[in-house]
Design a protein that fits this description.
The chain has helices at 46-53, 81-90, 109-121, 125-138, 144-147, 157-168, 187-204, 215-221, 239-244, 249-256, 296-300, 320-323; strands at 4-13, 20-30, 35-39, 62-71, 74-75, 92-95, 175-179, 207-212, 224-229, 232-238, 306-307, 313-314. The chain contains twelve helices and twelve strands.
Length: 330
């Protein structure tokens, strides 16, 4: 059984003309020890999907309208708020792309790592401090005893992110949701944080959902990938399969536009147009206004994610034409 099963998840925001679906029928699974990359442009619904898993939707106008989120066999959407508080941090934790916005500026970072241990595991302040220092050491914080008393503004971006990871892992959760954890960091520090996440997975069996818009990050870290566009998952596959043979035009376009794949001095390919606003979604396939493979049926048929093989899923009626027909099909 999968550690996490998200099925037909729908999240709506209040709009002037009625509810707007920021997440529309999203489904995926995550196994123990697996890293799932959730990839797509800004506004595709990646972060809202993961916030819904923890029932931490932004604003009063947001609500989970439908679906199930089963973690270790329990549907998180039916738990009481008190039960969810036990899940957050102790079973599932989340880190964010801008730690400065989520670390308390007037509380030493060591105390922020120790606090969940006191709340969830009822440790004494002395024991929580000892564990917090060890956690800071584990995530590569230099001189953790000294840095325990530092404040967020006194640390570099990379060290702030390490402090946030330490706090997220303090109660040994089985699942970590990492929301664009390297976006605000330079390339060298980004690589260090990604290596840290891989090391933690390999050492502890931690499962990770890695939210990103960067397929280069996916290539370095993920085991499987779910590609999101306009609130829906449009392709699911193993990392190797998706990068070698994408079966949705959007996935193909994302791969084609990666800077590292472009020859020096050659123009960088881009995806024409913009993702549609939630209050003006196109009929038919939501990607069709930007798709090079668009046909009449694409403008009329509301294409949903469907199995192509036992392990591959695509929301494109022309997926065969991306790899060739007949004998070349997966």
């Amino acid at each position: 059984m999968a550690l996490l099963e998200v099925t037909d998840l729908v999240v709506e925001f209040a709009g002037r003309g009625g509810p707007l679906r920021a997440v529309d029928g999203v489904s995926f699974e995550l196994n123990a020890g697996e890293i799932l990359g959730l990839v797509g442009e800004s506004g595709s619904g990646k972060s809202v999907t993961c916030r819904a898993i923890l029932r931490l939707l932004p604003g009063r106008g947001a609500r989970i309208a439908r679906g199930t989120v089963r973690y270790d066999g329990r549907n998180l959407l039916t738990l009481s708020e008190d039960e969810m508080r036990e899940v957050r941090g102790s079973a599932i934790s989340m880190i964010f792309q801008n730690p400065s916005s989520h670390l308390d500026p007037v509380m030493p970072i060591g105390d922020q790592v120790a606090e969940p241990l006191i709340v969830h595991e009822d440790l004494s302040k002395k024991e929580a401090r000892r564990r917090a220092i060890e956690l800071l050491r584990r995530v590569g914080m230099p001189d953790p005893e000294q840095q325990y008393g530092a404040y967020a503004h006194q640390l570099s971006g990379g060290l702030r992110q390490r402090a946030m990871i330490a706090a997220a892992l303090s109660c040994r959760p089985a699942l970590l949701i990492a929301d664009e954890p390297t976006t605000a960091l330079d390339v060298t520090v980004q690589a260090q944080i990604l290596r840290l996440l891989l090391k933690l997975r390999d050492k502890t069996g931690l499962s990770i959902i890695l939210i990103t818009h960067d397929l280069g990050v996916i290539a370095q870290t993920a085991d499987s990938v779910a590609v999101m566009y306009a609130g829906r998952v449009v392709e699911r596959a193993s990392k190797a399969d998706l990068l070698a043979r994408p079966l949705h035009p959007y996935s193909q376009a994302l791969i084609r536009s990666q800077p590292e794949l472009v020859k020096p001095d050659a123009p960088l390919p881009s995806i024409e147009g913009q993702p549609p606003p939630l209050d003006a979604l196109p009929a038919g396939c939501r990607f069709h206004p930007r798709c090079r493979y668009v046909a009449a049926a694409c403008r009329e048929t509301d294409v949903r994610l469907a199995a192509v093989t036992e392990r591959r899923f695509s929301a494109c009626i022309r997926w065969r034409e991306l790899i060739g027909a007949g004998e070349n099909a997966p």
